[in-house]
Amino acid sequence: MLIVGRVNMYTISEVAKRFQISRSTLLYYESIGLLVSSSRTPSNYRLYSEEDVQHMEQINMYRQSGMALKEIRKLLTSNQQAFVSLLEKQLQNLNKEIQKLRYQQQVIINLLRNNSKLTETRVMDKKTWIALLEATGLDDEAKGKWHRQFEKMAPEAHQDFLESLGISPQEIEQIRKWSTENDIKENLEDR
């Protein structure tokens, strides 16, 4: 870190090291106008201010979310409404990708159905999940309540969870419909 006047300034190598990216990445960011150094040394080396580093922290955070540089540029210059819209779009894209990956995972699980390595994966199927619930002492009524609460509190997450168990779309639809209908019925009975 250099001190120019009374301002802390950072070299390109220091910024690259701090964000664990290459110097060439920073140079590319500058070439597309995403992050431009605030100053130069008398020898024409780039210097980055604290504000530049904060700007790079935002860029880095958006990159970690999987956003493309073009979208990041829009985020950095957008109003609040556009900002939220861009992030929601990215979240929808990620959800679609996760759903696609979950489907691919289930295809591989079905291909490996009797392989001993299958138990070493981070996958739980419907049969294993039911066995786990029963091992904790949940009877059918309690399992139903679990589904109703999940559907009520986080319907999209409930969908995702059921998909992760490898349950067919038709059965998922039935479970979610049953959960909603029985939650309504339970609420009416409580009145």
Q: Would you kindly provide a written description of the structure presented here, covering whatever features stand out?
A:
This protein is α+β, with helices and mostly antiparallel strands and 191 residues long. The chain has 2 domains: 2-77, Multidrug-efflux Transporter Regulator, Chain: A, Domain 2; 124-191, no CATH class. Helices cover 67% and strands 7% of the residues. The protein has 9 helices and 4 strands. A 4-stranded antiparallel beta sheet has the order 1-2-4-3. α4 packs antiparallel against α5. The mean pLDDT is 86.
Descriptive labels:
single chain; 191 residues; alpha+beta; Multidrug-efflux Transporter Regulator, Chain: A, Domain 2; 2 domains; 4-stranded antiparallel β-sheet; 4 strands; 67% helix; elongated
Alpha plus pi helix count: 9
CATH class annotation of the largest domain: Mainly Alpha
Q: Enter the CATH topology name of the largest domain.
A: Multidrug-efflux Transporter Regulator, Chain: A, Domain 2
Task: Outline the low-pLDDT stretches.
Answer: none
Distance between the termini: 67 Å
